[in-house]
Design a protein that fits this description.
single chain, three-stranded antiparallel β-sheet, seven-stranded parallel β-sheet, elongated, alpha/beta, 258 residues
């Protein structure tokens, strides 16, 4: 009987996550007529099974940003290109910009004008290859062991290389974006490198497709309040965007795709 009730509660929680994008342990405890500890155990079991991501006070849907870099490049390519065009306009001539690994960031590297002079650093070989074709760009490749999942160099060597750079702008890759959970990613070492890269940078920009909003991955990078600019799709909810702006995060809308 207990197993049946557990499965029933978890089924309801999964449906709430699908419909509302977030659940709170206090509300679920009242609805189910059980203790908050019971609900928290349910959420822990669901998180361990990859069905949700635990956050303070409840849970969020798991970020959809799974797969290798090659797989992610092929997903929503037109929407990422629209985000890239909007993000490219935030890059100032003569600045030093760090391009974090990621499929959207690769699109940004391809999108800005070839004549825009800047110094670009990246831990992603694919992004470095895109930048090297732009004659006005000086490219710094951050080295180390390349992680196949992220497409970027991670670990001690990458951290030492990053320590030598103080970017004006960090174009940060993200798996999940949420007002409370902040900017999150799946990999532990990826999160460590991203946190250090943002700490070295004057400004942080995140460009993310709509699917990533209101979701979370296991490892936190920074709160949304530390993200100076958030580039979003043209149809993003104005009410939600206003809440990001209240946290000090400037929002930029991409163009509508055909």
């Amino acid at each position: 009987m207990q197993d049946f009730l557990l499965r029933e509660r978890q089924g309801v929680i999964s449906e709430r996550l699908r419909l509302n994008g977030r659940v709170l342990a206090t509300e679920l405890a009242l609805e189910f007529g059980v203790s908050e500890d019971t609900v928290r155990r349910d959420l822990r079991e669901m998180a361990a099974a990859g069905l949700c991501e635990r956050v303070y006070g409840g849970a969020l849907p798991v970020s959809p940003a799974h797969g290798s870099l090659t797989q992610r490049i092929g997903f929503a390519a037109d929407r990422k290109q629209a985000l890239a065009r909007a993000a490219a306009k935030q890059i100032a001539a003569g600045s030093t910009v760090f391009f974090d690994a990621g499929s959207t960031n690769l699109a940004i590297a391809n999108a800005f004008p070839a004549e825009l002079a800047l110094t670009a650093a990246t831990n992603a070989p694919a992004i470095a290859a895109a930048l090297i074709d732009k004659p006005a760009v000086n490219v710094i490749l951050i080295g180390g062991m390349v992680d196949r999942q992220t497409g970027g160099a991670l670990g001690a060597k990458a951290l030492r290389d990053m320590e030598q750079i103080s970017p004006d702008l960090c174009i940060l890759g993200a798996c999940g974006v949420d007002l409370e959970a902040g900017i999150t990613v799946f990999g532990f070492e990826d999160a460590e490198f991203k946190r250090f890269a943002t700490s070295r940078s004057k400004r942080v920009l995140v460009a993310a497709t709509s699917e990533k909003f209101g979701t979370a991955a296991p490892h936190s990078i920074l709160p949304v309040a530390h993200c100076e600019c958030l580039v979003v799709e043209h149809d993003a909810d104005p009410t939600i965007l206003a809440r990001y702006r209240e946290r000090g995060c400037r929002t930029v809308l991409a163009e509508k795709t055909n």
